[in-house]
Amino acid sequence: MPHPIHDPRYQRIAALLADLRKQRGLLQQDLADRLGRPQAFVSKVESGVRRLDLIELTDYLRMLDVNPKDFMDQILSLSKLPPLG
């Protein structure tokens, strides 16, 4: 069984986060400044090298002005999984 970090869903999440940042006209450095993190942090997240925990993800989404529920709905639709509830 492959290591969980190699799960293709993580790559889709990373790509979606990068797309959302670009849609808002932000550079990686802009987002990093908002997060109080180095630019390399954003780069690693967007390349799928670094995963975000739940708290980091909510901070990340808040800095992008993205509703976490909407984000999760997008992830679920990409994963072809039915929404919970």
The secondary-structure element order is: HHHHH
The gyration radius over C-alpha positions equals 13 Å
Helix proportion range: 55-70%
Question: Which secondary-structure class do the elements indicate?
Answer: mainly alpha
CATH superfamily: lambda repressor-like DNA-binding domains
Largest sheet: none
Strand residue content: under 5%
What is the number of helices?
5
Protein name: XRE family transcriptional regulator
Domain HTH cro/C1-type: 17-71
InterPro entries: Cro/C1-type_HTH, Lambda_DNA-bd_dom_sf
Organism: Pandoraea thiooxydans
Architecture blueprint of SSEs:
Elements: H1 8-23, H2 28-35, H3 39-47, H4 54-63, H5 68-79
Helix pairs in contact: 2-3
Domain HTH cro/C1-type: 17-71
InterPro entries: Cro/C1-type_HTH, Lambda_DNA-bd_dom_sf
Pfam family, one: HTH_3
Describe this entry's structure for a reader.
This protein is mostly helical and 85 residues long. It has a single domain, classed as lambda repressor-like DNA-binding domains (434 Repressor (Amino-terminal Domain), Orthogonal Bundle), CATH 1.10.260. The protein has five helices and no strands. The protein has helices spanning 8-23, 28-35, 39-47, 54-63, 68-79. The protein is globular, with a radius of gyration of 13 Å. The protein starts with 7 loop residues before the first helix and ends in a 6-residue tail after the last helix.
